């Protein structure tokens, strides 16, 4: 079946000639231009395409750590194959020749997005709605130049998939016009293919369907693995062997968890690299796609008032706090073999820490930023058991309603010691941050849903006004709060004089409240990340060496907890968490900013 809008490419050859000499296969680094405003160079343009190229020397800025795994180098013999067995990568001698092919919105190219695990929770809740939002915002290629395929074992027709997806789509508050029309147009681009995750044959069938939609254009393919991690490799193997693009890029978004410790994570990376090169792998951490996490670097590096303060000289402690006001409802089975440290701290909170604490990158390009982040992660002091507190929520009755405890979940063993709460004190052993506690706290079934970064500054030396603060100088210190969610805001607590003839001081907030400042709805993190993956922008995705460093920090601690079966402190559902977290903070002379009386006034 050929779609009516299809036509053969004009201009640049769709399938360029293959180079004879192929000493080394090197993944190209990527940047994107449109949304980040970087200068477009021909090599960058080629890099953005995500094409593989054969070249004797690694491109500038591409570190060996992100090249094919040394033990499992990607060679022409084990590189992904097209259906007919030929290597799927395009091989070019000249970067410039790729420019015409690199623009995925180019008339001659298509983008196909296959959501593997399309019947699942994440696909329905996040991925399809994010794709629709991108479509609505005109961020996806023109109508007939993109196709979305759902892939899963469940039997479904295209119409059934569309019906399922349609229930999850919404238009932004500020973009209501033509909403149902847009939805209909979008749904027409959605198709479904039922298949097993380990069947090359079924992926060959998918490939055929994809080709029908792509026609003879350059086909760029993105696979989103929205499936349990135990089947990641089956899918990558089948997709890369049987459904890779033969003339465009093939990229794979991998969802967390990326293993459960250093060993399993390394095994997963090795497995992925049997079929893909690092540049094709987009390890998603959706916290990096959140608006205020994105804004962290802007805040710091584009405002003179912040950057000079960003060190041990002025910052007393940093707190990165995640709390949810619901339990593991429905995900207890998954959660019990991971726990809150793996689910939230080792990835989301640690990524925020790395972004917060990194040195100024050479540029805004992905590799420069990721190089700086990895340096922070590698500089971290090994985590000590005594610097971590764990908790688990128990049943609680409030206002006549009984909230279940974690172990009341039928999929959780009754004697489970899996933490649903953890607080930790971390340190970065470098000149900038020596001795500054970075306190992290993450918990489920707490009193509120909130994620924030709190930066508590030092006391003002020889403060002329200290008499006005009483004995509690902490009440007078400046605190910068970056509220990631909900109700995004950045505010700075300052001291000021209460207007009048007397001299009384007050604490106030200089407040950038997003809802008041911007009328536009903030895009969901998945929108940004999907668009980045389509554009080949890797800045917000986790590189394998970052992942290794993150696991190296947490693995010994997790092992110790599990070997010793350390019992978590129980806390009631809907409470503020275990008191142990206060003792931990107090050990470093810190008070949790989210629990201070003042916080509730703010
Ligand atoms: N849900 C969420 O909020 C988040 C999820 N993630 C990660 O995203 C991925 C997808 O999550 P989610 O959608 O919740 O997962 P689901 O459990 O809903 O699984 C997705 C799909 O995978 C298939 N599947 C489920 N279990 C198995 C199995 N044991 N063997 C083979 N196939 C199976 C099912 O499709 P079918 O039976 O039709 O083949 C299912 O619809 C996971 O890696 C998860 O850790 C990450 C962050 C948040
Ligand atoms: O990755 C995960 O994140 C969610 C929280 O994400 P948010 O964007 O809603 O804050 C968490 O509930 C889940 O346990 C975890 O796997």
UniProtKB/TrEMBL annotation:
Annotated pathway: Carbohydrate degradation; pentose phosphate pathway; D-ribulose 5-phosphate from D-glucose 6-phosphate (oxidative stage): step 1/3
Reactions accelerated catalytically: D-glucose 6-phosphate + NADP(+) = 6-phospho-D-glucono-1,5-lactone + NADPH + H(+)
GO cellular component terms listed in the entry, alphabetical order: chloroplast stroma
Gene Ontology BP, a term: pentose-phosphate shunt, oxidative branch
Enzyme Commission number(s): 1.1.1.49
Coiled coil residues, start to end: none
GO molecular function, one term: glucose-6-phosphate dehydrogenase activity
Keywords from the named record: Carbohydrate metabolism, Glucose metabolism, NADP, Oxidoreductase
Cross-referenced InterPro entries: G6P_DH (IPR001282), G6P_DH_AS (IPR019796), G6P_DH_C (IPR022675), G6P_DH_NAD-bd (IPR022674), NAD(P)-bd_dom_sf (IPR036291)
Region: Disordered, residue numbers: 63-87
The Glucose-6-phosphate dehydrogenase C-terminal domain, residue ranges: 298-592
Protein name from the UniProt record: Glucose-6-phosphate 1-dehydrogenase
Organism, as annotated: Paspalum notatum var. saurae
């Amino acid at each position: 079946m050929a779609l009516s809008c299809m036509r053969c490419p004009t201009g640049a050859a769709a399938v360029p000639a293959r180079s004879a000499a192929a000493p080394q296969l090197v993944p190209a680094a990527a940047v994107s231009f449109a949304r980040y405003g970087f200068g477009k160079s021909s090599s960058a343009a080629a890099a953005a395409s995500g094409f593989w190229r054969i070249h004797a020397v690694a491109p500038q800025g591409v570190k060996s750590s992100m090249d094919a795994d040394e033990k499992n180098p990607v060679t022409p013999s084990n590189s992904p194959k097209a259906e007919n067995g030929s290597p799927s990568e395009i091989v070019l001698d000249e970067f410039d020749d790729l420019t015409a092919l690199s623009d995925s919105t180019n008339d001659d190219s298509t983008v196909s997005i296959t959501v593997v695990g399309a019947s699942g929770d994440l696909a329905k809740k996040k991925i399809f709605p994010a794709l629709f939002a991108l479509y609505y915002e005109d961020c996806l290629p023109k109508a007939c130049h993109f196709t979305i395929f759902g892939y899963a074992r469940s039997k479904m027709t295209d119409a059934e998939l569309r019906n399922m997806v349609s229930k999850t789509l919404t238009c932004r508050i500020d973009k209501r016009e033509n909403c149902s029309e847009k939805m209909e147009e979008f749904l027409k681009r959605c198709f479904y293919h039922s298949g097993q995750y380990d069947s090359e044959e079924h992926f060959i069938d998918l490939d055929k369907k994809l080709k029908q939609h792509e026609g003879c254009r350059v086909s760029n393919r993105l696979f989103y693995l929205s499936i349990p991690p135990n089947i990641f490799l089956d899918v990558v193997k089948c997709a890369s062997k049987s459904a890779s693009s033969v003339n465009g890029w093939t990229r794979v978004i991998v969802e967390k968890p990326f293993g459960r410790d250093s060993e399993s994570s390394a095994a997963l990376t090795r497995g992925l690299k049997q079929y893909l090169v690092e540049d094709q792998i987009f390890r998603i951490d959706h916290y990096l796609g959140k608006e205020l996490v994105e804004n962290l670097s802007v805040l710091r590096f584009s405002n003179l008032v912040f950057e000079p303060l960003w060190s041990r000289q002025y910052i007393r402690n940093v707190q990165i706090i995640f709390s949810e006001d619901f339990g593991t409802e429905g995900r207890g089975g998954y959660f019990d073999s991971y726990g809150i440290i793996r689910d939230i701290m080792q990835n989301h909170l640690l990524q925020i820490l790395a972004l917060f604490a990194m040195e100024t990158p050479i540029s805004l390009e992905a590799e420069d930023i990721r190089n700086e982040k990895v340096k922070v992660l590698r500089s971290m002091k090994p985590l000590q058991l005594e610097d971590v507190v764990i908790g688990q929520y128990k049943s609680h009755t409030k206002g006549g309603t009984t909230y279940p405890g974690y172990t009341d979940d039928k999929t959780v063993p009754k004697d489970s010691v899996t933490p649903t709460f953890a607080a930790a004190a971390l340190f970065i052993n470098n000149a900038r941050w020596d001795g500054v506690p970075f306190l992290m706290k993450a918990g489920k079934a707490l009193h509120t849903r909130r994620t924030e970064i709190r930066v508590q500054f030092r006391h003002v030396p020889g403060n002329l006004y200290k008499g006005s603060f009483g004995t509690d100088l902490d009440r007078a210190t400046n605190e910068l709060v970056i509220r990631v969610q909900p109700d995004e805001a950045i505010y700075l607590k300052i001291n000021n004089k209460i207007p009048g003839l007397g001299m009384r001081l007050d604490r106030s907030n200089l407040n950038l409240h997003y809802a008041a400042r911007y009328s536009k709805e903030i895009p969901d993190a998945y929108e940004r990340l999907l668009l980045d993956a389509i554009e080949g922008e890797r800045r917000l995705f986790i590189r394998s060496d970052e992942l290794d460093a993150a696991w190296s920090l947490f693995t010994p601690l997790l092992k110790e907890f599990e070997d010793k079966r350390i019992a978590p402190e129980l806390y009631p559902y809907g409470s503020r968490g275990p008191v142990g977290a206060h003792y931990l903070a107090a050990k470093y002379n810190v008070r949790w900013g989210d629990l201070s009386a003042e916080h509730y006034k703010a």
